[in-house]
Design a protein that fits this description.
elongated; Alpha-Beta Plaits; 122 residues; 4-stranded antiparallel sheet; alpha+beta; 4 helices
């Protein structure tokens, strides 16, 4: 895969650089991981600070265009980029946890007497 950085723009307010790269390839379309490794080589950045945002392929051509963000440090990356949830991982405000909470409350409520009039007669 031949990768060429066509545009690099510094975004100081977002603490990152935006890179637009084009690549020509043979065979199947390269994965985001392989594109990320090539961008890391050309941009001379740390791999953990590079995020691939978009990969566009061109029909009939062996060419892709990729948009990548290279952050200044790990703290800036964590502040700006959303975290990806793994399968089976439930967050605080997911539907699963919000549905479970009312069920638990219903179980804890004491049962009311069905016919209090019958008990008074006895």
């Amino acid at each position: 895969m031949e990768l060429k950085i066509t545009e690099k723009t510094e975004k100081p307010l977002m603490f990152r650089a935006e890179i637009i790269a084009e690549a020509f390839f043979d065979g199947k379309t390269p994965s985001k991981d392989s594109i990320k490794k090539e961008i890391v080589k050309h941009a001379k950045a740390d791999e953990s600070l590079v995020v691939i945002k978009k990969v566009k392929t061109y029909f009939g051509l062996r060419k892709i265009k990729a948009l990548a963000f290279v952050y200044n440090n790990k703290e800036d990356l964590d502040k700006i980029e959303p975290r990806k949830k793994k399968n089976g991982e439930a967050g605080e405000n997911t539907e699963e946890t919000s549905k479970e909470a009312p069920k638990e409350e219903k179980k804890e409520e004491p049962k009311k007497e069905e016919n209090p009039a019958q008990e008074k007669k006895e």
